[in-house]
Amino acid sequence: MATRPVVNTYPLSSYTFGNKEPKPEKDTTVADRLARMKLIYRQEGMRTSVEAVLVVQEHNHPHILILQIGNTFCKLPGGRLRPGENEIEGLKRKLTSKIGPILPALVPDWKIGECVGIWWRPNFDSVMYPYCPPHMTRPKECKKLFLVHLSEKDYFAVPTNFQLLAVPLFELYDNPQNFGYVMSSIPQLLSRFKFNAIAT
């Protein structure tokens, strides 16, 4: 049996959380977002986005850090890459923008690890698939999920109009109605890793 890669996780209590200026959402509705995506597609082609899977632990059980906007919409930290931007550098830029402190000296040393999942958006709608359908020659978006290895202690600053939630894997599992298909797939995507809960 192959050895499972080990991921060290640290207690949620070992991290510090602060606030920073609100970060207005560019789109207020899904329809607005898809319309903007269509406009950008005409200018730049397929959208490439990257998102971070940040793992902490509580009660020795893995939890994923998720941004909540308002009381309902949840997403992983990350976003769209600039044309030609490197995926790793782009994800570091997005993480710093979304949850990094204002002071550069406090920004975590983002350790971007394995790509754990790739999702495709064939059309200008909200449906994404964990594969690109063979008949789809011009997909509209490719989204990659990367495991980010957190340090033992880090400082995060969250825009005041967001909340950073620690959601246990068992709550994400098979729960697309609350978290969408991408986030509810994370428990399966991470099942090949062994989580090593380290007390601090």
Automatic annotation (TrEMBL):
**What is the documented function of this protein?**
Component of the cleavage factor Im (CFIm) complex that plays a key role in pre-mRNA 3'-processing.
* Quaternary organization: Homodimer. Component of the cleavage factor Im (CFIm) complex.
Question: Where is it chiefly localized?
Answer: nucleus
Keywords associated with the record: mRNA processing, Nucleus, RNA-binding
Say which family it is in: Belongs to the Nudix hydrolase family. CPSF5 subfamily.
Name recorded for this polypeptide? Pre-mRNA cleavage factor Im 25 kDa subunit
As for subcellular location, the record says:
Nucleus
Q: Which InterPro entries match?
A: Cleav_polyA_spec_factor_su5, NUDIX_hydrolase-like_dom_sf
A Pfam family annotated for this chain is NUDIX_2
